[in-house]
Please model this.
Amino acid sequence: MSEEIEIDLDDLERRMEGAMAALKGEFGSLRTGRAASSMLDPIMVEAYGQKTPINQIGTVNVPEPRMLTVNIWDKSLVGPAEKAIRESGLGINPQLNGTIIMLPIPELNEERRTELSRVAAKYAENARIAIRNVRHHGMETLKKAKADGMSEDDHKIWHDEVQALTDKFIKQVDEALAHKQEEIMQV
Model:
């Protein structure tokens, strides 16, 4: 077996892990009715002349299952942070208490839960597509190696390894989706 292909297999695995990491990040931004500090990760605040993640201008805490708080370090950024939260599309109404922004997380209605479940399924499908694209790249590399003289047996072994890797990551996507949809649909 060619060592070049083995290194490529490691690269394929890293790229598939990247697709899973991206999926977990997207899932983290979906609101489930329970407070999670990751809900605020995509929120960017206009601070010091540039867009800054909210967790870099204050401390995000989860004091209760349905409450988030953001303790803004610089008092001049409380207004821009509140505005960014309101405009984020999360459906959260911020309440100010000095430099602390309190974010009560409202219950999700059935329609919104179904919509979020569909969004999660779309994110999962995008991750599956990314994983299959990585698989396709690996198979193309194998095809070239076979044309360059790789034996049929070695080709079959590497083909099966690439497929097993793909199957492993597709299964992880499916499990993550099932877990996220269950979390979303919990009342």
